[in-house]
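Inverse folding, one chain.
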């Protein structure tokens, strides 16, 4: 017999994939809140789940570890900064100084719009693991 996910059945108007995506987003938002206020080292998985209103089962369905969540959040944050910068550069006048001003202003605006995000992007990811540190250093020169 096929499962509900395989047959496309919905529950409360959502497919299994939509529910899973919504739970992942809730965990990401909880991670941004807690990593950005309490810090990564002071935030256990249980606290993330409580903030998201989910059980640990759903955390591990979406992420392998707390570091995996931090990495996903970091990717979003640097992606948002890169996107804002590129869009500003594309919309800027064809003048080097004006382009640089537009790109830097857009980056700074995106970076500082939420202190929690800035803290995660520049403080909380530092030294978490060799893998994340390598990614963080390469992220300074290119978006992911």
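Residues assigned per position:
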């Amino acid at each position: 017999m096929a499962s509900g996910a395989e047959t496309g059945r919905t529950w409360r108007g959502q497919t299994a994939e939509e529910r899973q995506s919504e739970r992942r987003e809730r965990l990401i938002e909880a991670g941004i809140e807690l990593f950005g206020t309490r810090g990564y080292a002071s935030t256990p998985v249980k606290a993330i789940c409580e903030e998201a209103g989910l059980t640990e089962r759903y955390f591990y369905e979406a992420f392998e570890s707390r570091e995996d969540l931090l990495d996903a959040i970091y990717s979003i944050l640097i992606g948002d900064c890169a996107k804002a910068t590129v869009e500003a550069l594309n919309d800027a006048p064809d003048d080097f100084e004006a382009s640089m001003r537009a790109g830097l202003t857009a980056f700074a605006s995106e970076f500082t719009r939420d202190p929690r995000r800035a803290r995660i992007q520049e403080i909380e990811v530092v030294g978490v693991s060799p893998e994340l540190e390598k990614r963080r250093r390469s992220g300074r020169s290119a978006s992911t």
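The chain has one domain: 13-139. The radius of gyration is 18 Å.
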